[in-house]
Each structure stands twice: as structure tokens, then as C-alpha cells.
Write a structure and sequence with these properties.
Largest sheet: 7 strands, mixed
Number of helices: 7
Radius of gyration: 58 Å
Structural class: alpha+beta
Helix content: 25-40%
Oligomer: single chain
């Protein structure tokens, strides 16, 4: 048993001791105690017992205060946690602050945006095989567009000033059973919103660069190409834009 609890039990007077007459002095003053240090005195509480009782009351009061503080701390509402921060903190910028100059003293410039190449067109018409019509024979007067299934055989070389140049592959020559092999560049002229390659016209073709290099006239490929452009009625100044610059001299 705890000593403080024993002292508190001993401090409580016991009324109605055995063999005591009601109203007599022993009945009202006898206190039983198992503590050998407590001395029963008639008519008053021993000083040692008063000191022990005061100490016990002090301990109980202190324990009650501690329990109230602990319980009150647990019942107090805890503040909600703030939002988590990720990354490096961003320094605040004042409205009147000015940016620091770069080490070189030059003002920052925006990186240039790469422009996409514009599609080839001339006279407001796109230079595509979808806009090319052909008359392949001078005996059958039939002008027909290049069929989508056949467009893979052709390649647009260039266009300018209402003219368009294109070529056909060796596979296309064989598949379409065309005469003359692949010795020419095809030339089409813009008419009524469509490019027409008419084999009846001299401007409908020129020899390609390989054949221009074997002109047997002592001319460079470029001179031979320009000469044929002029003879066939195609503007010579458009030659670089239509068929390119050709092979290097020599």
C-alpha cells in the first residue's frame, strides 16, 4: 500500500469505537492508526499528522494540475499543416524592382523561331502533281490528269512564272510504256488554273542534265540547257528555278 494513501486513511477519524458510550469523550476522540509514528492525543490532532496530511493534499493538488494540463493539451485543436512546398523557393519580385543586367551588358533577346518552308506555288496554283494535266500523244487528243496511282512515278523539280518542270522515273517509263526512255524533263504551262504538258508543243520537254552534258557542241551543260530553253520558247531566266543549276563545270 502506498504510504500517502495509508496516511490519508489514518487521518480519517473513526466514530463509534467499540465499548464507547455515546456522547462520552473517548467516542469522539479515539483514532485508530497502524502507523507507529502517529501518537493519539486527547482533544487535538498531533502535529506530525497535520504535516503529513498537508503534504498529501499538496501532492494530490499538483497531480490534478498536471493531469489537467496534459488533458487540455491533448484536447486543444492542432493547427492544420501548411501546403507542401516543392522545388526551389521563388524569390519575390517587387513592382519597382528592375532586372539585373546581363554580364555582357546586352539586353536579352528572344530566340528566333524557325520558319517552315512555304509550299511551291505560282500564279496562285500549288505546284503539285494533282494540278498537272497531260496530253501524251499527238494523235489522240485526250488531255487527262495524272492519275493518283501514277503520281509515284513523277517528281516535281520546280516551278516559277507560270511554268512547272517535272521528271519521270525509269520504273514509270516501263510501267506506262512510254517511248524515248527517260531522256527528258517534262515542262507544263499554267493555263486556266491547271498546268498542261502538251506533247504537241515544243516547250513540253527539254533534255535532262545528263544529255545536255553530251551536247557535242563544246558547250557546258548550263549553256546547252539555256540554249534549248530559248529554242523551245521557255523563259531562260527561269531555268535555275525550274530545273536547277545542273552539274558543276568541267
Amino acid at each position: 500500500m502506498d504510504r500517502i494513501e495509508q496516511l490519508m486513511r489514518d487521518a480519517k477519524p473513526r466514530v463509534g469505537a467499540p465499548d464507547a458510550v455515546p456522547g462520552s469523550h473517548p467516542a469522539s476522540s479515539i483514532v485508530y492508526s497502524t502507523d507507529p509514528n502517529v501518537v493519539s492525543l486527547a482533544g487535538r490532532t498531533p502535529a506530525r499528522r497535520r504535516r503529513m496530511r498537508t503534504a498529501a493534499a499538496t501532492v494530490l493538488a499538483a497531480a490534478a494540475v498536471v493531469a489537467a494540463v496534459v488533458l487540455g493539451g491533448n484536447l486543444m485543436p492542432q493547427p492544420a499543416p501548411g501546403p507542401a512546398q516543392t522545388g526551389s523557393p521563388t524569390p519575390a519580385v517587387s513592382a519597382n524592382s528592375t532586372p539585373s543586367p546581363s554580364p555582357s551588358g546586352a539586353a536579352p533577346t528572344a530566340s528566333p523561331t524557325k520558319a517552315s518552308p512555304a509550299a511551291l506555288s505560282t500564279g496562285g496554283v500549288a505546284c503539285t502533281l494533282d494540278n498537272v494535266d497531260q496530253q501524251r500523244s499527238d494523235q489522240v487528243r485526250a488531255i487527262i490528269p495524272i492519275a493518283p496511282a501514277e503520281q509515284g512515278y513523277y517528281t516535281v523539280l520546280g516551278c516559277a512564272g507560270g511554268w512547272l518542270a517535272y521528271s519521270i522515273s525509269d520504273d514509270g517509263i516501263r510501267a506506262l510504256q512510254l517511248d524515248g526512255g527517260n531522256a527528258w524533263f517534262k515542262i507544263a504551262k499554267l493555263q486556266n488554273g491547271r498546268f498542261l504538258c502538251d506533247v504537241r508543243q515544243p516547250w513540253s520537254s527539254v533534255f535532262n542534265w545528263e544529255f545536255q552534258a553530251t551536247n557535242n557542241q563544246g558547250l557546258t551543260p548550263q549553256q546547252a540547257m539555256d540554249k534549248q530553253f530559248a529554242q523551245n520558247g521557255i523563259p531562260v531566266e527561269l531555268r535555275p528555278q525550274l530545273v536547277g543549276d545542273g552539274p558543276a563545270a568541267g
